[in-house]
Design a protein that fits this description.
Cytidine Deaminase, domain 2; 5-stranded mixed sheet; binds tetrahydrodeoxyuridine
């Protein structure tokens, strides 16, 4: 899918799917999987804070629970300007893809593209435990 369209889906998730009563910092993500299917999601905050789920993980877990295992690209937007995935989300992206484009956007026209290798160099992943995605 075109980057612009993927970003539009992330914006839609940010605006309509996030649950952020504590920070009011809204994040949306849209992830394109190996077969071109797309899943989106927003961040979900929990009153005791630590169970909070980032938008990236919401989108990725939706895809994985529908049987997908390989991420091609992920677009991320927030209510606070350019927002990069947290360390936990970088590792979750790594679980389901090594050759991933990470699109950090503010609008469908204004975005930067990074590789996962740039954001998580020298990573540890399934192959280090002898596992290919199953
Ligand atoms: N958050 C995300 O959803 N994704 C990110 O990449 C950074 C942070 C969320 C978690 C929390 O709900 C809020 O943003 C403030 O940290």
């Amino acid at each position: 899918m075109e980057n612009k369209k993927l970003i539009e889906m992330a914006i839609e998730a940010r605006d309509n799917s996030s649950y952020t009563p504590y920070s009011n910092f809204k994040v949306g993500a849209a992830v394109e999987m190996e077969d071109g299917s797309v899943y989106s999601g927003g961040n979900i905050e929990i009153s005791s804070y630590s169970p909070t789920n980032c938008a990236e993980r919401t989108a990725i877990f939706k895809a994985v629970s529908e049987g997908h295992r390989e991420i091609k690209k992920i677009a991320i937007v927030s209510s606070g300007g350019e927002t990069f995935p947290c360390g936990v989300c970088r590792q979750v992206i790594r679980e389901f893809g090594k050759d991933v484009q990470i699109i950090i956007a503010t609008t469908p026209e204004d975005y930067k593209v990074f590789t996962l290798e740039e954001l998580l160099p020298h990573s540890f992943g399934p192959e280090d435990l002898g596992v290919k995605n199953v």
